Amino acid sequence: MPKAKQFDELEVLKKAEKVFNEKGYNGTSMDDLVQATGLSRSSIYDTFGDKHGLFLKTLENYQASQDKAMQQQFTKTDSYKKKIRAVFDYMINDIVTDKTRKGCMMVNANMELNCVDKEVAEMALTTMEEMEQQFAMWIKEGQSTGEISKKFPAKALAKNLYNNIMGLRVTGRNRPDYDTLREITKITLSLLDQ
After folding, report:
1. How confident is the model at residue 5, as a pLDDT?
2. Which intervals hold domain HTH tetR-type (predicted)?
3. Which of 19, 77, 95, 138 is least buried, going by the fewest C-beta atoms within 10 A?
């Protein structure tokens, strides 16, 4: 009979996330993960397969928690423009309150591993496509009600908004202050009004 797990998997993923985000995938050793999670090597291998399996599960968990936190922000309003603004506000707050200044785990993983890790590249692409689709839906709805300008096609504007969010994530690592990020966002969101 297999031995029952004696640990909280979500807690392990949060601890692993901290290490992976601090050191990167390649800079994180199995010893780092054993020390951070409190698990033995055999427990990590039995549960996640290997370091890469733990990393992918950690990245999935990170993105799911980010998605949930953002969703809580944009469900507070019926205005499509305000929903988009809520996503940007969430990102700015997430950047500024990140005292480690390590940034977004998905962005970091994508930058480090995109060319060499097909699974990470696919996860990053899926995240991008889902966010662009969400933006495009809101933009189309906002354009149909007159709340958002029809100057730009919804899909093109959605891609622009996503690109600007990624830019905020990168800028925020060097300059994580509300004023700078809000100034950038104000100009970006002005595209909705043109």
Report:
1. 67
2. 6-66
3. 77
